[in-house]
Each structure stands twice: as structure tokens, then as C-alpha cells.
Amino acid sequence: MEPPGARAGARRAPRLLLLALLLAAHPGAQAEVHLSVQPLVEVMRGELVTLDCTPLETHDHFVLEWFLTDRSGARHLLASAELQGSELQGTVHDARGRSPPYQLDSQGRLMLPKAQVGDERDYICVVRAGAAGTAEATVRLRVFAKPETIEVSPNKGTLSVMEDSAQEIATCKSRNGNPVPQITWYRDGQRLEVPMEMNPEGYMTSRTVREASGLLSLTSTLYLRLRKSDRDSHFHCAVHYSMPSLQHSRLDSPAFHLTLHYPTEHVQFWLGSPATTAGWVREGDSVQLLCQGDGSPSPEYTFFRFQDKEEKVLNTNLEGNLTLVGVQRGQSGTYGCRVEDYDAADDAQLSQTLELHVAYLDPLELSAREELSLLLNSSTAVNCSVQGLPTPTLRWTKNSVPLGNGPVLSLSSVTFDSAGTYICEASMPTIPLLSRTRSFELLVQGPPELRAEEIESKAEGGWKEGDEVNLICSARGYPEPKLSWSQLGGSPAAPVPGRQGWVSSSLTLKVTSALSQGGIFCEASNPHGNTRHVFHFGTVAPQTTQVGVAVMAVAVSVGLLLLVVAAFYCMRRKGRPGCCRREEKGAP
């Protein structure tokens, strides 16, 4: 008889086998391997590359392998690592000629020192974990290289704008970059949108070369149909290149100009400095005649002058300027410039003329001599004449003070204040720095004019004997007057500062009682007459200190006289002994 549990166990066994078979037949029921991989790695050339491949689950044992996929798709084992215990033992199997060689770190990451362009490949990481399964992932490596300095080679020849097709402008080169960059062209900072196919208005060509280092060099050539407006244009090219993380940058070439050939359409002809806006130049100056055509290269210039309605050639050159040295008034007239450009259109105006006006100013003439002498209160007129072109303006001044405009200076009822230097100035407002002057000295003759500085007493009580006083007299006239005093001691006459024509003299003396009667005078004289001024002092009092001394002198004299009388009295009475003593004793 079977135990009850044995029959039940026999019934469960087929069920467990079926479950095991079902589990084996269902993939999701098996253990799986999952990897942590960065699908795209971007680095700059020369940097260290680290490719990471890490199982997400924990396995007691697994083997990690790194493969390189070539351009045909074949795989090449580079390195492998096996987990033994807690350590991962790695081995590099094939460096494939790379220098420095591939490396594996302690975590099974593939290391590529100094990234190179040739490292751009797909790298496959395979992890085998036994019963847990096998997993693989692909890492794509991109290596970027910044191009070297951009080079531009402009066409150094002379390009004609009369060509009806595109001409080679310049070649732009970008060396050793990765990936291949892009070259664009610019005119005056604006990008030129030109096609890659030949076009009469303009196009560009491009050529890419892979260098031995694996880097890429790009050459672009620009072709354009040129216009006259391009004569002042700036051209340059730019290289646009890519960087990691979708970054972009550019390198710009130096700007360059083109040498163009185009015919003359217009001619300019003008007077250089120091001419005025009205075309006047000063006699004796050197003047430049400047001529410029808008053709290129510079055409030949012919300078000429019209004399008696005939053209007289003066000079022919390529510089476009003619210098007239020390021009004279006879050189005024019509001058011309002609451009010799045989490529110019038939209707182009290639000749221009201008009028040259030579301004001159002759020396001034005065109706008076350098010194004009007039009697006091007389009148006269002085005339100033001049020859010049354009007509000059005349102005009279004295001591920089304007007196009036015009050729005639009227002097009426002259005084001593009228004496001085008079200047006639001739100028031309439209011609800077062209002016002349002429002057004369006016002398006014007449008897002296005398002025004295009045004196005032020092004290309120008036003058006292012994007071010191300084007397000053000033005079003017022509001839210069002489100054004298009624007492000796006067200073010599000297000019008065700031007062033209005046001379002065001073006398210092002490006041006496005699001055109160007649005073003291100064006198100015010249051949035309004389005049004097008297200084009065009024009443002169004696000094207080002198009165006191006189009183004391009188008192002393009286006292001495009394003593003499007393002595005489005593001597008369000698015969009486004791006479004088009794009187002295009796005196209370």
C-alpha cells in the first residue's frame, strides 16, 4: 500500500517538468545582460578618448571585449577583460599600428591617448556573462580638428571691367581640418551667393584633399564679373568648421583690394592750396594745379594755358599736378587739363579749364613825410594811395584805435593829444595775409602846457616852519619844454610814465616864513613861449618847540643878570664886615 504523499508527489513531478520546459522556451524568463554605453563620443584632435562600457547588473563572472569595425564592416578584436573575483583582468590584443597604442583601465574602459583622425570608427563592446547571456553595444567616435590659419591669394594682376565674363578673383585655402570645412566669400562684409557651376556673372570652384595625416584641406577659387564700383571694394573669405557638441566657428582671412582697369568718365581740375575759394592766389606764392581723372590705371595728363586764344602746352605727366613757382600778376588767365585715355567713351568729357587770378598789392604812398609837424590848433589832410587787385580796403588807425576807412585822413584843430603815430593799412578781406601798412609821425608845435600837483598842509592848523614838502610840475609841448624852479634843487626833467609827451620835475624843500610872502614857482619854456605856476603856502607859524626854548633862554639870562648885580653890590660894601652875611642870615 502506497503512502498518501507518494501518489501526490508522483502527480506533481510532470507539472514541474512542464513548467521548466515552458520557462526554457520563453526568452523573457531568462537572465539578461544590459550595458551602459555612450553611443556618440566627440573629442578634439590630440585629446584623450575614453570609451566606457559597463554592465548594469552584477555578475559573478563575465568577459568584456572591444572590437573595431573597419570600413568593410569586419570586426577586429582590440582588447578584452575578464572578471575574476572582484578584479577585472584586461589585455590589449591588437594595437593595429596605432601610436600610442590602445589601453584598458581597471574598469574595462578603452583608452585612446592623443586622438587622431584615423580613430574615427565604430567601436563595439561585447559582454558575455555565461548563462546570464551576451550583450553588445556600438560607440561611434568623432574626432574634430580646427583648421590652420586661413590663406588667401588674390589675383595681383590688373583686371578689366570691360570683360563680359567672370574673371578669377582669388583663391582661399584651409589646411588640416576635420571634418571638411566650408568656405564662403564676402564683398564689403556681404556674403556673395555664387553657384558652383560656371556662370558669366560669377561662380566658385572647390577641391578637397586628404592629407597623409588624415586631415582634410579645402581650396576654393572665386570668379566674378567686375564693375567699376568694385575699385574700392574689400574682399575676403571665411572658413566655417564644426566643433564637438554641435558647436561651430569660423576663421576670416585678411581683406584685400583688386587692381582694376576701367576707362575715364569724368575729370576734375582745381587749384590747390594756398588758393582761395574764389580762385585768387597771392603774387609770389607757388600754386599747384591739380587734375584727376576717374580712370585706372592713372592716365596721362596734359596741362595747357590759353594765350591769345591759342592753346600753349605747359607740361605732360602721370601725377596729375603742375606747380607754378612764384606766380606773377601777368600769369593770370585760363588754364586747362586734358586726360589722354584712348579707352574712354566717345562722349566722355576728358578736358577741364579754370581761371587763375593773381592778387597783388603794391607799396602804399602817403602825401605826408615820415614826420609831419603842425602848429597847435592848425588843420590838414593826409592822403593814402595804393594799387592792387582785387580792390583793396584802406583803414586809418592810431595806437591800434580805428580812426576811419578811406584814403583821406582829416586832422582838424590839432592839439598836443593829436600827436603820435598814424598808420594807413591796405588789406583784401578775400585774400588772407595780403596786406601792407605805411605810417607817419605827427608833431604838434606850440607853447608849453603846464600842470602842477597842488600842495596841502600836513596839519589842520596850516604850514609850520620846518615842514618838508615835495613840489611836482609837469609840462608838454614841442619842442620839448624845459622845466626850472625859483629855488635851486629841482630834479632834471624826465618823461612821465603812461603820459605821452609829458615831462616832469620835482623840488623837495623845508617851509620857512619867507615862503609865506612870495611862494615858490616852476616855469616851463620852449621857443614858442613859457608859462609858470606859483605854489603859495599862506601863513607859516613858528614851531612850538622853538618858542619854549626862547622863553627858557630869556629866564636863564635874567637869573644870571640878578646874580651879577648881587655880587657887585656885595663887593661895593666890602668895608662893612659881615654885611653880606647879615643879609643872608636875615633872609627868611
Describe this structure in words.
By secondary structure, the protein is mostly beta strands. It contains 4 helices and 46 strands. The strands form 12 sheets. Strands 31, 34, 35, 37, 38, 40, 42 and 43 form an 8-stranded mixed β-sheet that branches. The protein has a 6-stranded mixed β-sheet with strand order 2-11-10-5-6-7, with no helix packed on it. The relative contact order is 0.06.
**Biggest beta sheet attributes:** 8 strands, mixed
Structural class: mainly beta
What share of the residues does DSSP label as strand, in percent? over 45%
Q: Percent range for helical residues?
A: 10-25%
Average per-residue pLDDT, rounded, comes to 86
Contiguous low-pLDDT stretches (5 residues minimum) are: 1-30, 577-588
Distance between the termini: 203 Å
Number of strands: 46
Organism: Galeopterus variegatus
Membrane topology: Single-pass type I membrane protein
Keywords: Disulfide bond, Glycoprotein, Immunoglobulin domain, Membrane, Repeat, Signal, Transmembrane, Transmembrane helix
Pfam family, one: C2-set_2
Spell out the key features of this protein.
single chain; about 600 residues; mainly beta; eight-stranded mixed beta sheet; six-stranded mixed beta sheet; 4 helices; 46 strands; about 45% strand; disordered N terminus; disordered C terminus
